[in-house]
Structure prediction request, 1245 residues.
Amino acid sequence: MDPASTSKSEQPDSHTRRYDRQLRLWAASGQQALELSRVLVISGSATSTSILKNLVLPGIGQFTILDSARVTPQDAGNNFFLHRDSIGKSRAEESVRFLLELNDSVKGTADTSDLASILDERPQYLKSFTLVIAHNLRELTLKKLSSILWGDISGPPLIVVRSAGFLAEFSIQFHEHTIMDSHTDDIPSYRLDNAFPALAKHALDLDFDALDVTDHAHIPYFVILVRALHDWKQAHGGKAPEYKQLKDFKAQILRMKKKEDEENFDEAITQVFKAYQKTTVPSEIRALFSNPSCVNLDESSSPFFVMLHALDLFTRKEPYTLPLSPKLPDIKSDTVNYIHLQGLYKAQANAEKAEFTRILEEVVAKAGVAPVPSSVIDEFVRNCHQLKILKGKQWDQDDNSALLEAIATNPAQVGTHLALSALFAFEAAHKRWPLPGSEADLAVAQEWIDAKLSAAGWNEESVVQDDGTQVDEAATGPQSLTFREHVSNAMGEIIRAPTADLPTTAALLGGFIAQEAIKLITRQYVPINGVCVIDLISSTTGTIKI
Amino acid sequence: MPRLSHCQAILGPELFSKLPSTRVLIVGAGGIGCELVKNAVLAGFGDITLLDLDTIDLSNLNRQFLFRKKDVKQPKAIIAARTVSAFNPSCKLTPIHGNIKDPEYDVTWFKGFHIVLNALDNLDARRHVNRMCMAAGTPLIESGTAGYLGQVQPLLKDATECFDCVPKPTPKSFPVCTIRSTPSAPIHCIVWAKSYLFPQLFGEDDDASDLDAAAASGENAIEIDNLRQEASAFKVVRASLLSLDPTDVASSAIFTKVFTHDIERLLTMSDMWRSRKPPVPLDRDSILAGAFSLLPATVAPSAADASAKHSTTNGSQSHSSTKLKDQKDLTLRDNVLLFDSSLKSLASRLKLGREGKVLAFDKDDDDALDFVTATSNLRAWAYGITPLTRWEVKEMAGNIIPAIATTNAVISGLIVIQALQVLRSGLASDGATHISPNTPKAVTPRHYPEKRLLAARNVFLQGGRPSVPLGSFGTVPPNAGCSVCRETYIHVQCDPGRVTLGTLVDAVLTAEASARGREERREISVYEADRVLSEPDWDENLHRTLADLGCGKGKFITLVDEDEVVGNVALAISESPATHPLQGLPYRLPVDIHPPPLRPARLPRSSPPSSPLKQITSPVKANQKRLLADSEIFGTPVNSSAKRVKTTHLVTTLNGDAVDADVDMMKIQIGGAMSPTEAREAQTLEEEGLVMVEGPAGF
Prediction:
């Protein structure tokens, strides 16, 4: 091999270098998903372009801005991606032009058609995107958009964003969202209660007494526990320790020490539950198996459900667990011992992955779907203990009892949510926005809120009395206000400048919403499920499930 | 309709009308800085100074949106200002391509701003700006991000805590012998390659002092002696690097010295290997011929792994298609070839001399990173430590913190909002340009339409509770034991070439005594940073000028009370402004000098120096050892500390792989007793001291 070529092949290309800092968060698989995505953003507002900026920079595949408006002087003042010279030109075209400067590898399209006519004439177009984001869309149009997207079970998720001044909210409409790598803290089982043959052999063959003090102090606690459990069973008719015997079991481990300060044995004692707890399929994962999309596969099934189906079959056979994780936790040990243990786990994990893959191939053939790439199988198996399926709901299908519950737990957020809803309801009813500072319009908006509340069955007396439980400051706001005060404060705040798309609020929303978009597109991390309310006066946020 | 009418409606006419003339300093034009300068301009700020010493790198472009590919290697501050000005020509933007720690940015300079916004990526610069702002009395909005996490903290002398009120963990250091002789984890090999071998071959030679310090701290004397010999041999190979042509000869010579002879020499110290696995000298020729095999004792336990991860011969291995190029596992032979090629590039750069006589390690310098990857892996191989990919080495060697646009966008939005709140509360109190200390946690009901006081708050972006993305809590009063913001600052304008230390100290103490209505002056010791300048029974320096003592513009001279009855006084030295000649006087003090307040009783004593010749721990450092319990003793609300702890905890648990950094830190001190992966994660977190930082270190 030529030395020069070796050197070059280790050095990352400019693509990797550009995305280095984010690849360390969502890895190449996440990046690939981003680069294949197509995002539709409705309106070229300051908030919309802020969101897009944060999607163009990390490198989504392509985006479209749908906006028939022309740039006003105000737009040019609060939207960084418009120029003074843009005034009077198409808002979509101008902002696409400036956004594209951020990243050569992203494609952008300006669509100046009228959304209403698209909704009527070619709704299919909307479903061709990976994700749709709508900012401050008028109520009636938004209702139509959301129901069209909801109407198709495989249609793209919709992020609805509303903002006025320092107040904002957003929610995500999706039927079901599957997550392979949820990046949660859930720890897989290492099966110390039921060691696989190679691990058991290693633990039993090791002559603890023959080791010198240094090596003895470096036996990984995994090995100690497997050995201790084996010895216990030998002495107790093949039975594992019961809960009430744990103390004796720990004492037995303690007696294995050669020296008082052997930390690996101390660690074995603190981790004793790993040997005691029976490894089973976690209930959250088992629950996923009964999902209809998992049970009934057909040629349209997604790889996630095809693999989930195969996983279900895998767990029905010996040893009735999920495939073993190849990744070890932090263990007190020396490098040599650690690497050996890691080798045992890797070998076993590879064998189980091979078995899983074999089952999967049968499932794939039976269902008539495309084969799953091995890198995707790797990711699935590696994360199979933390798979997630989120159930979503249609936008604006508020449920009254949930609303009452939310008022009790998150009065500040519900107050802001209702005020923002009233703003858009006002526009829908009067075909205009409230006038800034108008007492009359404020009263109309308040009436709408009152009507909404009484329809939900809320009255002053129904306030849940504080039972002394600690309420989160974020949920109530820094000041202790009543729900009524929250509502009127938020409404008052909105009426000051009902259509203000503030640059600072837009910048912050741009960050939040792009982050949710990235979660949805990469299917990594858990997105917000509910209405996330943001109040930048008190710098608080909260999510309400309504 | 005017362009900024929305802002006006929301901020109110009074605050809004002040913004164009509010002088703002933004320190840092990186990930947060780019967003911040955009937001500040759009919000209506009209006079912004933007300072950054860094130049643009390709890896910045995934979030630092004011830069384009064509701008790579240009100064960040200049390009950022140019891009923003194109959009908003009406804003006065002053870019400075410079280091905030330079003496010209002294207290006088900081006093020239109404508010300072930090957008920094490292602890050192943050602490510096914090101290300058405390000395100048200028409000500071401090911020930081790491991956999905971030925080914003409004800081103002006497009104809130300062950045140093809560001690920050200091970066981890390793014993010299662990790095040089007995590595047991990948990080040890990387530190050796980056901080020892690389400077030995390409950088400044400052090894002697290192070993002196190690000897002084009681490390193995014989071993240190050996290391001295090893170092002197480096002078020879280094010379060969520059003279020998072709470089292949030098490459082979260096390899043999470092990976064969030095290891053989270490093996002769049999004591060292009594309770450790001894290393194996590497044989370059047989590795290249594919014939080298490591002794079974070293490699046998990892055989299962070796078959999968690194076969030592022909370098053919499969890796999945989603893996990136530099995430490829390197064989032993790959590493030798990488060593050769990177050494060759670096040697020719050294010979050309375009970058000066020495090279410094930079994680974005491909040759340097290749070299550190190859040499740390070769060392790992010799010691039976798991070798890493180039990608992993980069993360550890460069202390890389993941960074994304979204987090920076959220945080920079919050910075502007907190800045507005701070300025607003200033207007609400007295309308002065400088805000007066506001009552922390001021709770004023929000009244429609705009009478409410906007109280500044600490805000953090938390990944741990997806349902509550933002957390916030009110500002916290200063920590009574803080050695930065509890010092009494006196702004001294002077001509450092003319004024002597004695004259100045004398004037301050006299003014202080007369303010107390007394004749006698207290006894003090005088420090500059960690240098003792004078003590009650050692006054030789008092006759020397400040310039002579290296205490000119930008420095702080600290007066420490001998009896430790009152707190420290810090003299912030700046030159007299051209517009205010001193009229003959070599210095000018403020008219209102107050005696420093009493020192809180239970503070740890700052130890007086034993010998004036020896460098001692600075008074600053001695006082920083605040225990958590102190917060109760001195009345700092305990809950604030608790909240902070919680925040930090979240940071670590959310940083990609769920690791509890506190726990890992303890483990890493045990040394070698953790998995390579976990050690690496802990190390990465630890090197940044859990401080949330943005992006690559540039300062």
